[in-house]
Backbone:
């Protein structure tokens, strides 16, 4: 009911082109923009073959075009509301997977508390929260924390990225992780070092299975 009232006061708009959408839509993407999203087919991602700590990876689209623009706005230009639409994109991808096995917990890649305070929100956590609602799976923000306030990864090469995030994550209570299957979510995957460090921390704490999920990747494969 509350959401309905909000829809009337603030009609939903397409996050890409601002077109006003019908009331009650589940994702804020107009038909026209939906056609422009650089979706990846299947789960054709080669990362699994290299030494990664995740057991599988789900990646919705390429980091280009309208998705790239929207993710930049989402993260750096204060658009936390976009999280709902990004969650729906991951949800639709998961629903289309025939081998999807329900996980026990969903976690967003944590930000260091100082960075989160500065940005006002953790973009990965906001997507996780909405995805948890759609999939009816628990989301836990406190199991994994970022202990190192690392430099931005975007200007670093792979070796420096690795050094930058090494041991940056800590599992706060391994009892909550032990023997669990976990979906860990981030907005963008570039070299994969950040996500991989998270997965390593979770595996070291006894997680049975860790699946990574991202909205977009800039990796060529
Ligand atoms: Zn649109």
Residues:
């Amino acid at each position: 009911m509350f959401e309905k009232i909000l829809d009337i006061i603030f009609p939903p708009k397409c996050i890409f082109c601002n077109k006003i959408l019908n009331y009650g839509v589940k994702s804020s993407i107009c038909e026209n923009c939906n056609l422009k999203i650089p979706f990846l087919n299947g789960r054709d991602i080669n990362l699994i073959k290299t030494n990664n700590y995740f057991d599988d990876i789900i990646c919705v689209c390429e980091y280009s075009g309208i998705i790239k623009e929207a993710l930049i706005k989402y993260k750096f230009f204060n658009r936390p509301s976009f999280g709902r639409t990004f969650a729906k994109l991951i949800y639709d991808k998961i629903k289309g997977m025939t081998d999807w096995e329900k996980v026990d917990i969903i976690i967003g890649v944590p930000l260091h508390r100082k960075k989160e305070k500065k940005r006002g929100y953790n973009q990965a956590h906001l997507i996780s929260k909405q995805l948890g609602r759609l999939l009816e799976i628990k989301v836990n923000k406190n199991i994994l924390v970022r202990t190192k306030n690392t430099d931005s990864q975007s200007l670093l090469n792979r070796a420096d990225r690795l050094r930058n995030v090494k041991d940056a994550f800590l599992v706060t209570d391994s009892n909550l992780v032990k023997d669990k299957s976990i979906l860990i979510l981030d907005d963008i995957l570039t070299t994969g070092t950040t996500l991989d460090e998270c997965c390593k921390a979770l595996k070291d704490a006894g997680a049975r299975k860790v699946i990574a999920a991202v909205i977009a990747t800039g990796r060529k494969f």
Remarks:
- The radius of gyration is 17 Å.
